[in-house]
Write a structure and sequence with these properties.
With 204 residues, the chain is α/β, with parallel strands linked by helices. The protein has helices at 24-36, 53-64, 82-85, 98-115, 142-158, 166-170, 186-200; strands spanning 16-21, 41-45, 75-78, 120-124, 163-164.
Length: 204
């Protein structure tokens, strides 16, 4: 999709401007965050699933081009991990190794800092898989995601980036919170949106 095909993001002059980047977990909670912060901030996000670290690096220029003025963006909240850790071929390697994942997270931080020079950058950890083993049809596991989260935490901490630890707040949620192997139900997405909105209020 070319930049001209995207709906522009017109930043507010009277409220804070927040940009949410992330995978399908973000897609589940972003509208709730937008509604909850509507009196304080304009919350922007792309309709696309931002998928992996590679996808973010490749497409950030498109999303940046959608903003009327990137200097007015006050906060960028990003997550990626589910796609990176996934093994797309049974028994194969993950899309992104842990070493590559850490390197890519650092690159994304630098890209965001350049493109949104006045924005606070916040990183969100990757949420767990459904604890019901019968639903764990995807080839990534919660223990693997914990390792990827630890890699990311080390990188973002080194770069003085605050962490919204979504894994920590969701690690004990039971199978009733899940719609499938890793995505949440509508009600749970609203709960997660409230958690994210409360976290973001600390930085705006």
């Amino acid at each position: 999709m070319s930049p001209t095909e995207n709906k522009p993001f017109n930043c507010s002059d009277t409220k804070k401007n927040i940009f949410l980047i992330g995978d399908s977990i973000r897609m589940g909670y972003c509208n709730e965050v937008k509604d909850l912060l509507s009196d304080k901030a304009e919350v922007f996000f792309v309709d696309d699933n931002c998928r992996s670290t590679q996808h973010i690096m490749m497409n950030l220029w498109v999303w940046v081009s959608m903003f009327s003025d990137t200097k007015k963006v006050d906060l960028v909240h990003f997550n990626c991990g589910h796609w990176d850790a996934n093994r797309w071929l049974e028994g194969g390697l993950p899309l992104t190794s842990e070493e590559e994942y850490g390197r890519n997270i650092e690159i994304i931080i630098k890209m965001l800092a350049k493109e949104f020079p006045n924005a606070k950058i916040v990183f969100a950890t990757t949420t767990p898989m459904n604890p019901n083993p019968e639903m764990a049809i995807d080839s990534r596991t919660t223990p693997e995601l914990i390792r990827y989260n630890e890699v990311a935490k080390e990188v973002v901490t080194k770069n003085n980036i605050p962490i919204n630890d979504l894994f920590e707040v969701t690690k004990d949620w039971d199978a009733s919170c899940y719609a499938d192997y890793c995505h949440y139900t509508e009600d749970t997405n609203k709960t997660l949106g409230k958690i994210v909105a409360e976290a973001l209020e600390l930085y705006i």
